[in-house]
Amino acid sequence: MKYLVLFGPPGSGKGTQSENIIAKYGYGHISTGDVLRAEMKNETELGKIAKDYIEKGQLVPDSLIIDMLAKTLDNFTDAKGIIFDGFPRTTAQAVALKKMLAARGGDVTVMLNLIVEEQELIARLLKRGETSGRSDDNLETIQKRLDTYNSQTAPVIDFYKAEGKLANIKGVGTIDDIFERISIEIEK
Ligand code: ADP
Description:
Bound molecules: adenosine-5'-diphosphate
Order of helices and strands: EHEHHHEHEHHHEH
Number of strands: 5
Number of domains: 1
Radius of gyration: 16 Å
Strand content: 5-15%
Distance between the termini: 14 Å
CATH superfamily: P-loop containing nucleotide triphosphate hydrolases
CATH architecture: 3-Layer(aba) Sandwich
CATH topology: Rossmann fold
């Protein structure tokens, strides 16, 4: 089974490209952001806790995310592959993922790292905020999410680089062009 980590800062296009990968390759998809938003909508205990972090542009604590992921992973035993979208977001999560996959006899196949410069990210997220209804798509929270990305999430790149799994993808251009770059890496 292939395990893809789709990585990049907020607004880099992970959700959009996940849809393309699902459509072409039929992989299972785990978006920690989507799972958290569903928990918030259903007003679960986890959702209530997550809301405070998300609205401040901070990360939800690792222990909660890792438990949540472990439960979700068991839904995909028959998939050809799995896309991890928005996870891992800290080095501790990357280490936990490695352990969870090793317990299933697997490992991350490749980290697809979408590269987009900050001004473009802010413009995309503000535009999305006009229609997304997401309480974190406003300028103040966007700036905090980018700071959180730079301080806590970007170091995950070094983890996968050291594992020989890093594939940098230019994340600007048309959606189709970017997907073409991703497809080349998936098929390597
Ligand atoms: P984006 O990548 O556009 O910021 P996501 O939907 O992936 O959006 O995540 C939204 C928010 O959910 C994040 O800002 C963070 O607060 C929380 N979150 C999502 N995934 C994780 C994770 N793996 N670890 C910690 N917090 C997370």
